[in-house]
Specification:
The protein is an alpha+beta fold. It is built from 15 helices and 28 strands. The two termini are about 45 Å apart.
């Protein structure tokens, strides 16, 4: 059996010492490969940069030479059968929901970062042991057997996390036959019983909607941090969520953010962890896995996560509308839809999907995808179906049997719910494969649910009247319909500005050169805030709200 042993000799160094034990039965080359990326983030991470001091020892303790084949793959030639040890150190110095962190208070590991896949032995069972101080409490999404931790194969190991801490708070929830474990590392500044109650409510609503839960046990692992942070990563048997500052969670608006990411990650237990594009079924962590399903993978999950907080009773209608407004306002400052479809933006995640990138190149698979999901849900409600009914079909057809889907197969399921395929195909052509402005369509479907979409000026005059977004006096974005688009550059630093008779006078430092610019006030609002007004509930809204 392949075995991994983890030990921290000096926690303040943030290095963890790792021993990989490989049983060698034949005298043939052994190849090792470290993942280059992880599930849930379609971008090369190059974890190999965190490895040092790698050595390979034979069964008799002899140092074996090895050859590096690529940046994250190695091979060695055994000279005896028996157990070979690969020993190395990994730097655990990044705190987020998908990385590793070690200090005097905790050992936190996402195994996909630091564990080698042994070629030809990927399907073998793997034993994992983590040596930690006896007063630490531990939790993991690995399988527990006879006081040990195991993964059934490398895919499961790469999909698992581990946390041992000096202080873990633990709660449990039972829903049917499924056990949900809640682990909190850090200070708790909220009512734990109320938190547990709210988590249970949206768990029950999601399970009721799908009819079953994919696994028998699930772990919510929370890193409650003393500094600002927000991140979540999905796993088949749980999620890790980092959030901070922890003390802010006494405020309802911040708790809404934590509940939002929690509900979002739980929905991933079906969508992505099980219902998955064929291109990532299974994951090949050695190279990029290009797919165009971002609007399904993250867009639908973002939309459904928020909607289930409303359906479970956690969100009031006003709070749901405020969350939807945030999505609209994030999207309204991005004109990437003019230049790239969401299909191509999904494919290009491997290029710059999680970074700002060049101006208006792409759209977000999260927020833009959520607007697509909302429109489809509204269209399907008119057909006496719903987007979640589609997701339930996808679960039964692809997720439960663990068969990857194609975009064409997903769209076939959607078309099976309508007698007006031309209407749906036109939507796909315009807003999924195309580059049309989705906002007018969103406004139309909001109206069908009894909401008015209003807008108002942003607090800063420069953005709404003149189309300039600034951060620390530096221009970070310019509205393409503004006069400023022809007179200013991203990166210009505003030294001074005054308004005289609606004419804006700017003193600019343009990369070391001083210049003066005059701009006329635009006749309409440029960058603006969108607001949802509850005009009049409709019968359709009742169906939407109640699922």
């Amino acid at each position: 059996m392949i075995k991994y042993q983890f030990q921290v000799n000096n926690p303040l160094s943030q290095f963890i010492q790792i021993t990989l034990n490989i049983p060698v039965k034949h005298l043939s080359l052994v190849r090792l490969r470290l993942p280059a990326w992880r599930a849930g983030r379609y971008q090369l991470a190059n974890y190999v940069r965190n490895i040092r001091n790698l050595n390979i020892l034979s069964p008799i303790g002899k140092v074996i030479p090895y050859t590096k084949l690529s940046k994250d793959s190695w091979e060695f030639e055994p000279d005896h059968v028996g157990d070979y040890r690969v020993v190395y150190e990994y730097y655990c110095g990044k705190m987020d929901a998908g990385s590793c962190w070690v200090d005097e208070y905790q050992i936190y590991l996402n195994f996909v970062n630091c564990c080698f896949e042994v070629e030809g032995q990927s399907e073998e069972k793997i034993q994992v042991s983590v040596n930690h101080p006896s007063h630490f409490q531990a939790c993991t999404t690995l399988i527990k057997e006879n006081h040990g931790f195991f993964a059934s194969n490398f895919q499961q190991l790469a999909d698992s996390s581990f946390l041992a801490s000096i202080s873990l708070t633990y709660e449990t929830i039972e829903v049917g036959e499924v056990n949900f474990h809640l682990w909190f590392n850090g200070d708790i500044h909220f009512d734990l019983a109320e938190f547990r109650f709210n988590i249970k409510n949206f768990i029950e609503k999601q399970i009721d909607a799908f009819g079953e839960f994919p696994v028998a046990e699930y772990h919510f692992i929370y890193q409650l941090l003393p500094y600002p942070h927000y991140h979540g990563v999905e796993h088949q048997h749980g999620t890790v969520i980092t959030f901070g500052p922890a003390e802010s969670l006494s405020d309802r608006s911040q708790m809404n953010e934590l509940m939002g990411v929690s509900c979002h990650e739980l929905y991933h237990a079906w969508n992505v962890c099980q219902i998955r594009p064929t291109e990532i079924m299974p994951y090949d962590f050695a190279k990029e896995a290009y797919h165009k399903a971002g609007w399904i993978v993250e867009g639908i999950t973002t939309y459904m996560g928020d909607l289930f907080l409303l359906r479970s009773g956690y969100f009031s209608l006003r709070e749901y509308c405020e969350t939807f407004e945030k999505t609209l306002n994030r999207e309204s400052v991005n004109f990437g839809w003019q230049n790239q479809s969401i299909l191509d933006s999904s494919f290009d995640l491997w290029v710059d999907g999680y970074e700002a990138g060049i101006p208006d190149k792409k759209v977000s698979i999260y927020t833009h995808g959520a607007l697509i999901a909302f429109c489809l849900d509204s269209m399907l409600l008119d057909e006496k179906s719903s987007l979640h009914q589609v997701m339930k079909f996808l679960w039964k057809r692809f997720g439960k049997p663990k068969i990857g889907y194609t975009l064409e197969e997903v769209w076939e399921v959607i078309l099976s719910q309508t007698e007006h395929p031309i209407y749906f195909n036109q939507f796909y052509s315009n807003y999924i494969s195309g580059k049309e402005n989705i906002f007018p369509v969103v406004e139309k479907h909001l109206a069908s649910l009894g909401f008015d979409l209003d807008s108002k000026s942003r607090e800063d005059q420069l953005s709404s009247d003149y189309g300039i977004l600034i951060q620390n006096e530096k221009i970070i974005k310019i509205h393409p319909n503004s006069e400023a688009f022809d007179k200013l550059m991203v990166g210009d630093v505003i030294l001074a500005h005054t308004v005289k008779d609606t004419l804006l006078h700017l003193s600019i430092d343009r990369f070391g050169r001083k210049t003066e610019v005059k701009l006329a006030k635009h006749l309409s609002l440029l960058f603006k805030n969108h607001l949802l007004a509850d005009k009049k509930p409709t019968t359709k809204r009742a169906l939407w709200n109640n699922g």
